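Backbone-to-sequence.
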């Protein structure tokens, strides 16, 4: 789903449910509007809000770090592919073209096939496996003849090994998600926090609804941020495929 649609569902849903809950609560218990228990409710809201805020901040920072790590991994993988492309320029034309063809095929498979799978959190190691074997075959079956070729051949091997390492790291990150305990604390905490606002008494119904709605909207946007950041390869706040299409790799597109 687009991020805008997710925002409408999460934020709008949380606000509507909170407003409906507040209306129903005050209809069944109109005495709450007197604010007799506001002191106690205010203390509870303050303590609960502080604890929930700390948990939410920890989760958001953790997820944002994960997005940054994913971006670094993708850039490193693409940089190694680009470097491999440059290193192979010293090889004979037939071998150079074979390496370039393998690099281009691998980049296309990652962007066109693997990326949609990573958006759904279901990366598959089998994708681009054949292209990876062709990359290794293009180097393993070649015997460099000059000292210059040997030097760049060693660099090309290092670049290819780095691609393998970053590929595994990328798919590992794509398959990660927020642990169940943290999900329970984030989403369960929101479900427990919002009803507490219903108990805060305000004589004006309009002001009461504004108070409840604003708190619900803040929590809704926080939950939206958690949902979006929990998928580093999907949505507007995500890692894209630009790194595989610039520099030396641009020739393959």
């Amino acid at each position: 789903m687009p991020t805008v649609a997710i925002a409408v569902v999460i934020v709008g849903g949380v606000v509507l449910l909170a407003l409906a809950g507040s209306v129903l609560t005050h209809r069944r218990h109109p005495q709450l509007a007197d604010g007799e228990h506001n002191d106690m409710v205010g203390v509870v809201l303050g303590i609960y809000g502080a604890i929930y805020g700390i948990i939410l901040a920890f989760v958001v920072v953790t997820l944002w770090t994960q997005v940054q790590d994913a971006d670094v991994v993708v850039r490193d993988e693409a940089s190694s592919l680009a470097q491999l492309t440059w290193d192979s320029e010293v090889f004979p034309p037939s071998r150079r073209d074979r390496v370039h063809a393998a690099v281009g095929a691998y980049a296309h498979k990652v962007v066109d096939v693997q990326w949609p799978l990573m958006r759904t959190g279901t990366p598959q190691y089998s994708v681009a496996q054949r292209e990876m074997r062709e990359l290794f075959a293009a180097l393993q079956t070649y015997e460099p003849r000059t000292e210059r070729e040997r030097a760049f051949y060693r660099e090309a091997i290092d670049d290819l090994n780095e691609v393998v390492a970053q590929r595994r790291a990328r798919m590992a990150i794509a398959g990660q998600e927020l642990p169940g305990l943290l999900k329970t604390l984030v989403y369960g905490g929101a479900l427990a926090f919002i009803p507490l606002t219903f108990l805060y008494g305000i004589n004006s119904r309009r002001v009461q609804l504004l108070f409840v709605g604003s708190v619900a909207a803040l929590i809704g946007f926080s939950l939206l941020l958690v949902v979006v950041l929990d998928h580093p390869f999907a949505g507007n706040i995500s890692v894209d495929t630009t790194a595989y299409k610039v520099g030396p790799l641009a020739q393959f597109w």
